[in-house]
Amino acid sequence: MADVEMMSSDSESIDGDSYDFRSLLSSLEIDFLIRNNGDQVKIDSLEGKKLGFYFSDKEDEICQIFTQKLVNVYKELSSKGDFEIIFASWDYSDDTFEEFFSEMPWLAIPFQLLYLEDTLDELDDFFFQERDVPRLVILDEHGMVVTDDGVSLIQKYGVDGYPFSAERFKELKEEEEKARREQTIRSILASPSSSRDFVISSDGNKVPVSKLEGKTVGLYFSLSSCKSCVDFTPKLVEVYKKLEEKGESFEIVLISLDDEEKSFKESFGGMPWLALPFKDKSCEKLARYFELSTTPTVVVIGPDGKTLQSNVAEDMEEHGIQAYPFTPQKFAELAEMEKAKEMVQTLESILVSGDLDFVIGKDGVRIPVSDLVGKNILLYFSAHHCLGCHHFLPKLIESYHEIKAKDEPLEVVFISSDNDQASFDKSFSEMPWLALPFGDARKSSLSRRFKVIGIPMLVAIGSSGRTVTKEAKDLITMYRAKAYPFTEERLKEVEAEYEEMAKEWPEKVKYRWDKKRELTLMHMMHYRCDECNEYGQVWAYRCKERDIKLHPKCGLEAEAKGTESESESMDEETERWVCGGDMSIGFCSSSPLSRGRQISVLFGI
């Protein structure tokens, strides 16, 4: 996350402006807010309080996750009596609003009032620079905007960020910098606020933190409900025991992110190492301190108490004890070993393991890997439960058929992350190519080899058997079949074609919903067009200030429409341009305005 000074530079409060939210709401004929039990709360009762305006949407998974975090922070601060949150819903219906609001202990703008056009326009002018949710705008007791990035601050600091002032954020930042400079194993694991100077073993014994001084320590951030953690733990146990047998000065401390003590005890009970106590406040602080972004994560602290590596989980899976002692020198050696392996890589070396020397076609027919030698291969890591995979699959199928129609030597192999055979069968039934069988042991080794940390992922293997790129998904998304065979030479040719195409377009266009705003032509890998609500890539007209993005075709059409008579009513414009075909150049067809676009128009973004 950007530091406080950088983040605040975009906030209107930096100019010393303050906002009278009571006047705003009163002007919109909103003189009360509501609680989820139906109680009404007068606007005047919030005078002198710090406020958080929370824009959120139940249908958004990130909003749901952040809301639970915000609920915990709100409850901890409720006893202070000087902080309140006001929910402004982006939900599609009154029913989803009511369902989402039932989880919230704070106030809300009544749904029916919020979705009046004037209300949305006024809130837009009052707060918004971007359309993303979740969004939390924090005002101090005088009505000044402290930050419009409250989501990041709550995620990073939690209740420690209170009273959410610029001075407090600066103070926390300085504390973090000092802690990193003076970091020791004691400063990481002991808790002065609770006088805890120990960690615990699985049998409940207390082990003084001083016993870990001078050792290499792995901080294992884990969640018992996380399948990746469940799969990784046995490998970590294997590494731990082997290093223990060799007499290495190495220890692991579990930093559990579990919410239920039963889950914590069940998972920790099978681990041979130490842990912080369940729900210890240091668990959350350490997750922020080490900027945790995924689980499992193993942070390595050296014998001197300084951080050696931010996450060696993948390295442990791939190299085992060979990765020890996790120093930069050791990882340089491993990198050289990997380069040497890649130089002699063949298709058989990555797809054949013992008797597993085949892939399958439809109806389970076995096809020897040897039949694929000499072809360009795409390894497609995907799963039926993955929403992103469902969005990407049609693009890949379209590109596959287009490439195959030219008699190009291409094949795709589906590598499933599905949880059961039925899900695998559903996934594979939609695909016109080959696959590894469900539950095939080669899947794990391929995931480690290509460092698959998210799906969908597409790896391109050249006709020689060597890896061409691990970013083939992005290339298909941007260029479709034109990207084939995904080599640097081909990508340079494609980029030159698009550069030539862009020469025909103006550098800037006017935005028809706000003629004062100009949108500038620029490269964008992947985006959603705010005119037609469809995805695009490569080129876009964009206004960075409001994060408005248009396909080139939509931008040119929108500018043309903006020159039409201003007396034409928006109510009479029942159709908009919706992209199809090659969205990167804005090929369009007429289609009714989607609800998503209606919201973006009402908010003026």
Could you characterize the architecture of this molecule?
It contains 22 helices and 27 strands. Helix 4 links the parallel strand 4 (83-89) and strand 5. Residues 1-17 and 565-605 have low confidence and may be disordered. The protein is an alpha+beta fold and 605 residues long. A seven-stranded mixed sheet has the order 9-8-12-11-10-13-14, with helices on both faces. A five-stranded mixed sheet has the order 5-4-3-6-7, with helices on one face. It is globular, with a radius of gyration of 28 Å. The two termini are 24 Å apart.
- Our estimate of the beta-strand percent is 15-25%
Count of helical stretches: 22
Rg result: 28 Å
- 3D shape: globular
What's the arrangement of strands in the largest beta sheet? 9-8-12-11-10-13-14
* Secondary-structure class: alpha+beta
Uncertain stretches of 5 or more adjacent residues: 1-17, 565-605
- Main sheet characteristics: 7 strands, mixed
Fraction of residues in helix: 25-40%
Q: How many E-type strands? A: 27
Mean pLDDT metric: 83
Distance linking N and C termini: 24 Å
